[in-house]
Amino acid sequence: MPNDRLRDAMLRNGFTPSAVAEQLGVDPKTVERWITQGRAPYPRYRHAIAALVKESESYLWPGAVPQERANRVAQSEVVQVYPRRAAVPDDLWRRLISGAQERVGILVYAGLFLPEQQPQLVATLKAKAATGTRVEILLGDPDSPEVAQRGADEGIGDAMAGKVRNVLAFYQRLRDVQGVNVHFHRTTLYNSIFRFDDEMLVNSHVFGFPAAHTPVLHLRRLAGGDLFDTYADSFDRVWESSLPAWQPAVAS
């Protein structure tokens, strides 16, 4: 069976079979067989290809990575566990935000703390977008039942919708910035996700507690692991069903 995932990942990253073969020091026909016949390369080649096309081994070759090893790699993707979001150092937030080159993703209901704690956030995101960084911000639709329910779960009622509107005011300066997209979602979130290239902070949601008081996982993506990719895929699924926060202006 052809390996369509490998073929697609190579095309998205501008690699031909010949280019991959040259990088790995193998015959181009070998690479063609990996694609057309679905043959799994030796582990050393899987590692190299996964790094080239920026995908995990487990995604490109499901079943090729033994489960025991996949479990070990997933554990290694956990850099740090913080007992509450308030324990995440400010300098870590700054490093992750400033260091992202390809993608910044923010998935929250409101996430008002972020622009409040990081006064340069909006200016930094604007500058990054100008250099080609993809910025995606997902906020809960303040008129949605999901936001109302989260407010009830935290015991703050309508204040949650107010937080969304407040944070939207911070992001207003990004409204017409090319490369920045701010969307509303109507999704029940079990985690807030903050992605910065191949690092991520995942803030769990716990009934009865504000997100500032619940645990955070600091993850770093590794080839062969699937923990980071699980949350990355969840982010993308929410994005697919979201809508722009600001409607385009209608010409009079």
Structure notes:
This protein has 252 residues and is an alpha+beta fold. The longest helix is centred in the last third of the chain and has 14 residues, at 227-240. The mean pLDDT is 90. The chain has helices at residues 4-12, 17-24, 28-36, 43-53, 57-60, 67-76, 90-99, 113-117, 121-130, 145-154, 159-170, 227-240; strands spanning 78-82, 103-107, 134-140, 180-185, 191-196, 199-204, 216-220, 243-244. The chain has 2 domains: 4-65, lambda repressor-like DNA-binding domains (434 Repressor (Amino-terminal Domain)); 75-244, Endonuclease, Chain A. An 8-stranded mixed beta sheet has the order 1-7-6-5-2-3-4-8, with helices on both faces. The protein is elongated and about 60 Å long. β5 and β6 (199-204) form a beta hairpin. The chain is 44% helix and 17% strand. The N and C termini lie far apart (55 Å). α2 packs across α3 (28-36).
Topology:
Blueprint: H1 4-12, H2 17-24, H3 28-36, H4 43-53, H5 57-60, H6 67-76, E1 78-82, H7 90-99, E2 103-107, H8 113-117, H9 121-130, E3 134-140, H10 145-154, H11 159-170, E4 180-185, E5 191-196, E6 199-204, E7 216-220, H12 227-240, E8 243-244
Parallel strand pairs: 2-3, 3-4
Antiparallel strand pairs: 1-7, 2-5, 4-8, 5-6, 6-7
Helix pairs in contact: 2-3
